[in-house]
Amino acid sequence: MPPRRILIVGAGIAGIASALALSRELAPFIPDLQISIFERHDVLSTSGGAINLTPVAQRHLDQLGVLAELDKMGPQGGADIDGIEMFSSRSGKPMGTVSFTDRNGNGYDGYKGRRVMRIILSVALMAVVKRTKNVEIVYGKKLVKGEQKDDRAVLHFQDGTFAEGDLVLGCDGVHSATRTLWVDPTCPSEYTGISFVQTALSAASIKSPIHFRGTAMNVSRHGSLLTSYCDRDREELFVAAIVEFDEELLPFYRLESGREWRTKHIIKQTLGEEMRHRFGKSAFPCIREITNQPTDWMLYPVYQVPPKARWYNDRALLLGDAAHAMPPRDESAAYALDDAILFARTLARYRFEPLPDIFRAYQNLRRETVNKAFKVSQRMWAKNRDMGMLEGRLKEWTLPRTIRSQRGAREAAWEFDATKIDIPFSSEDLVLESFVKEFSLY
Ligand SMILES: Cc1cc2nc3c(=O)[nH]c(=O)nc-3n(C[C@H](O)[C@H](O)[C@H](O)COP(=O)(O)OP(=O)(O)OC[C@H]3O[C@@H](n4cnc5c(N)ncnc54)[C@H](O)[C@@H]3O)c2cc1C
């Protein structure tokens, strides 16, 4: 019997995109399909700053109807980004561009890059959920246990309630409870050693000339500073430092609710000093000015999931960051969307097969690509560690060549379309192939 009741843990990008993609792919075959998303927060989370959407992410959001919602929001729907301009923060010299357009300046199938506040993207996702008949979001449901009972999956929540279904998708992010309490307790998230220190401010508050068109990465030997517009009218600036940060210091910087205002004030002040220390001598006057502003810097420690993590058991599959959170390089949201669309298509095609075979078939389609991306992200991420003067100069010297040499691979990546990946009609061939692959992965 194909699954009729699907339970999704987490209303982030992976969770909502999975629900929308499953509704589209399965509803024609299963009229009484019911998809419930369980989210631990009581309301839509407003934290998280701005996110860059690559051409692939935009293509997939368009296919799910979300891009149209973003466009309806006018200037708040995000700033169009042709590429990330790279600069040396020390010398002010340009070092190349990570381009989201082809060599003629056109987008891929018309899609370029877009930087948008996370909360705006969530509102757009929610608008599509609202008009999708067989999808509901239930808030205030923090998963504390998952189990299989006979042929059903059961989710238990912190408030004492539970839900039963045929299939669970764990889309609950890097620290996923679905993973750590049920699918693979041996794989907790691990700190990458690097954190984001970020803030948003009004562009009008910066009097010095701004040296970039849409988004810039200002590279230094003390980490990199991302500076970007995040609205179409270029009124809002998003600034994020990607810097080495000692794990032992993290508990002090946690801005939990309930902390005294005085502690919060000290945290913000200390982060401001850290930013001035790292970027206060930049060659760019606007960066010096930003680091001297009395703005609220927030710390986001970046975690990853070890690439050896299991992705599924008999009833549950992990998608998005829950399965493969990697150091961000502006592409992880796209991976979450790719996962959602590919899994929905795989499930629709093999809906009469046993779930573990479907999960294995999906993993076979996906795991190699994700593992490769993880390795590339890790290599790039390491370049944000603190360095001595000589190593810093070497980084500045080699970066332009690295950007140029990776252009072909990026162009191929921007063409990716999860709706066009060939899923063989016979699951038997795919399952056999996946046995061989899985054996070589572990
Ligand atoms: C600092 C930073 C900057 C980034 N910048 C970019 C960028 O510019 N571009 C890009 O593409 N990617 C970026 N990423 C990565 C990107 O944010 C993630 O890959 C993407 O959000 C993954 O989506 P997700 O739905 O898998 O997880 P999440 O977005 O983390 O969503 C998980 C959801 O599950 C909920 N949840 C968690 N635990 C439970 C539980 N126990 N019970 C119920 N619900 C639960 C959470 O509240 C949340 O709503 C960045 C990541 C970081 C850390």
From TrEMBL:
<keyword id="KW-0285">Flavoprotein</keyword>
<dbReference type="InterPro" id="IPR050493">
    <property type="entry name" value="FAD-dep_Monooxygenase_BioMet"/>
</dbReference>
<dbReference type="InterPro" id="IPR036188">
    <property type="entry name" value="FAD/NAD-bd_sf"/>
</dbReference>
<protein>
    <submittedName>
        <fullName>Salicylate hydroxylase</fullName>
    </submittedName>
</protein>
<comment type="similarity">
    <text>Belongs to the paxM FAD-dependent monooxygenase family.</text>
</comment>
<keyword id="KW-0560">Oxidoreductase</keyword>
<keyword id="KW-0274">FAD</keyword>
<dbReference type="Pfam" id="PF01494">
    <property type="entry name" value="FAD_binding_3"/>
</dbReference>
<feature type="domain" description="FAD-binding">
    <location>
        <begin position="6"/>
        <end position="368"/>
    </location>
</feature>
<dbReference type="GO" id="GO:0071949">
    <property type="term" value="F:FAD binding"/>
</dbReference>
<dbReference type="GO" id="GO:0004497">
    <property type="term" value="F:monooxygenase activity"/>
</dbReference>
<keyword id="KW-0503">Monooxygenase</keyword>
<dbReference type="InterPro" id="IPR002938">
    <property type="entry name" value="FAD-bd"/>
</dbReference>
